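#struct-queue
[09:14] JT: dropping the first one here, sequence first, then the structure tokens:
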Amino acid sequence: MSTQNIQNLTVAQAEKILHKFTCQNIKLVESPEEKAITQAAILLLVNLSDYQMLGICAESTTEALSALESYLRALGYNNTLIDDSNFRAIEGSVYIKFNGMKESYHLEPYIGKYRGVLVSCQSAEATEVNGTYGYLPLDLFA
């Protein structure tokens, strides 16, 4: 998809692009073009929703925090939200839940097999964007 088409992306097209990244079908981004269109799709839906919740499943606390920071920056949240001193390092894989309404986060151990980021767009009106997309790549916005 060309840059012109990325800028004219519709909600339906964005949701179709992101539907490829489902829990049942873990998908990797295989090219710079695919990365750009995936970024554009999630940013469009985020910008049309009231707030977002993120769920990050990663191999380590460091990897999870890196993904959280890059996603928050890309989604337009305050860059100073994350204070590493609030986290105690957890051995092994972890899950971070970020609540965009409260701008708070929680870290805990995770034993599941999935890795990536779930982005849940929340809107007050049922006719607006409400949906969960992912697992998206941890490094999509790195």
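[09:21] JT: and here's the second one, same format:
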Amino acid sequence: MKIDKKVIKELSDYLDEFNLTELEYTEKDTKIKVSKNKIAVSNHPDQINNTNPSAELPKIINNVKSGIEVTSPIIGTAYHAPEPGAKKFVEVGKKIKKGDTIMIVEAMKTMNHVPSSADGVVKEICVEDGQPVEFGQTIIILE
């Protein structure tokens, strides 16, 4: 696979133009994620932060993920189990059916069950328990 540097440059320029910290582009089996690291600045002259100038450049990550991506239908906090200490809805390697609950996303104190959009075997769980998720963010990948 050849990476198109022009696409990466354009995505990097969009970060600056729209004052974004992260941008993701997906086409077929290719996913390109471009993000910028924020650098902390101290107001104390005795605490000078000598950082590498390359740390300010966009960090480019190219992930090729195969499988069926199940995404979050809403913004909220993802939970792997119905309550703390309970059995998780899914584990890597577990076979699931379309409609099975794979996670709960809490939004505005409401627990929303997220159903699987397809049959398959859980290949990867992409979010940690208690982690905030965005609308459309991949939460699991099925084979």
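[09:30] RK: nice, looked through the second one.
[09:31] RK: The longest strand covers residues 101-107.
[09:31] JT: good to know. The helical segments are 5-17.
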